[in-house]
Amino acid sequence: MIPQVKPQAGVLPRPSTKARRTVSVGQCPSGSAAWSLSVGPYWPCAADVLSRLALRRMQCVAYGRQDIYNRVMTAQTLGFAVQSEDRPVLDELVAYFGDGNRSAYLRATLKVMKSIMIANQLREAQAYGQQRTAELGIDPADVPARVQEFLKGSRPGKGK
Q: Dihedrals φ, ψ of 6, to 5°?
């Protein structure tokens, strides 16, 4: 039973700390925390209870998300500078390719830039091969047959 405090004339009653108790009102879906409210001798109005419950629920969701982030995400935060005239372009690209998330945009950009890098390396290797065949006096039409001949002779178990 909650003790009642009688108000004095002109003075608002002050709840005693002994009269406060915690009321359990639910459990987080993740099971990581219970929702509870600490209530005094005077029950709060319904709007106050709902706002406090909503705050507890948001805290529970935030803690759950942080827990997932800490367990799954091993990302590092990196800083980089962007010229002020490039910022609108960056924001536009982030909105389009990353749905407003700069990290998602950067991950998508990494894949594209990696493929461009590989394509450039292959072009350089091809140019080197063409230069070497020209230096050695090999006709470009003979290259596929020479490659096949080389591959046949270099198989394991075959000796030359």
A: -85, 125
